[in-house]
Design goal:
Layout: E1 2-9, H1 15-24, E2 29-33, H2 39-43, H3 46-63, H4 79-103, E3 107-110, E4 113-117, E5 120-123, E6 126-135, E7 139-141, E8 152-153, H5 155-158, E9 167-171, H6 175-186, E10 190-194, H7 207-219, E11 223-225, E12 230-235, E13 240-244, E14 249-252, E15 254-257, E16 261-263, E17 275-276, E18 279-280, E19 293-295, H8 306-320, E20 334-336, E21 342-346, E22 356-361, H9 366-370, E23 377-382, E24 388-394, H10 398-401, H11 403-410, H12 415-419, H13 430-438
Parallel strand pairs: 1-2, 1-6, 2-3, 6-19, 8-15, 9-10, 9-15, 10-11
Antiparallel strand pairs: 4-5, 5-6, 7-16, 12-13, 13-14, 17-18, 20-21, 21-24, 22-23, 23-24
Amino acid sequence: MQEFDIVVLGSGPAGYVAALKGARLGKTVCLVEKKDIGGVCLNQGCIPTKAIIASVDALRTVKNAQRFGIEAGTGNFDFLKIIQRKAGVVKKLVSGVNFLLKQYKVEVVQGTGIIKEPGYVTIGDKELKAKSTIICTGSNPFLPFSIDHINTLDSEDTLNLQALPQSIAIIGGGVIGIELANIFCGLGTKVTIIEMLPKILPEVKDNDITMLVKKKLESQGVKIFEGTKVENISEGDNERICALSSGEKIGAEKVLVVCGRTPNTEQLQNIGLTFNRKSVSVDEHMRTNIPGIYAAGDVAGQPLLAHKASQEAVIAVENICGENKKMDYSAVPNCIFCSPEIACVGKFEAEVEGAKTGKYNFQGVGKALCSDDTEGFTKIVSDKDGIVKGMQVIGPHASDLIMLGVIAVQKQLKADELGELIYPHPTLSECLKEAFEDVSQKAVHKFYR
């Protein structure tokens, strides 16, 4: 029986980071993965969707090239080549992770790891002894409807389609649904979104943001039903039929079910772990209720984000190595890669008592005008003392700009302090400066009566 300091179950952004961190800190590490190194994020989620979105963005740029004085041609595209490019990007990143695991001498075992009892993990007929175990088993799509993976799909199926559907009905208007809607409508597919809750992107608690996204999607021909439930899915003539709670029926060549994800705890039910609803309960050190067993990533609960998962994994390993580290959830950024792009961190205005806000539109930013990408704004939310409690950006490169908001929220900086910094010109970051200054109505490029 092999013995390791750390056995990690799952190789997603929590698992492989935990393995690399443990090895770097001098521990012997075994990484157990039943499918693909990199997990859903690298293989079926974050990375492949962003690779396809990059192709869609390039197509939109070509189609709008005349606005820049350029004759760029027809804007025709090859869907299979887009999918092949996506596969190449994924392969390159997965190869990079495998290279690092090999360099750090992490032993990788293929199969489903089961905690037989604390300190012992089995993979088929192979048994490992673990001084510490980190559960990083991720999550699976939540599917309220049965799917055949051919005409009724989950999010992973859509990324491997070999032909572009003429029409698609997307059940679920959350982050995944909106990102995939952005892809398909950008490629010319007729898209319908059906969201059970009162509005799309329910996790974004700012109506100005969600209304802008909705308006943009509808301008591209996307039909959106909010506050509407799909009662059932049936077969029609060469299409699937969604019967809605409103009494309407929506027909589409493909139906995509994206109603969120649920923690993967199937193999964890019989060892005495404590659960918080469907996720494994952990404390701020990422420890479970069983000594020597930790959990990180989607399996440890919301928010289900890759970067949050990686940070939890680092915290778990550092505590295994004798440190006293705590996970801080006060400033976890959330990015949504739709058009326009969205990024949020901290609290929304409605969540802060006596909130003071600052706002500035990208229309007033020189770099945005030069790029002909002026939709959206930056919004700063502070408390009554001017300490930044949240930041929301919708517009060009929002996911890149949000990091200053992460620093502001986590370090409890004041909006005035950040407004006094010198921002490079001409850059999109100037939108942040004006928004920080607007909290105290000091923005130079904004008129106050």
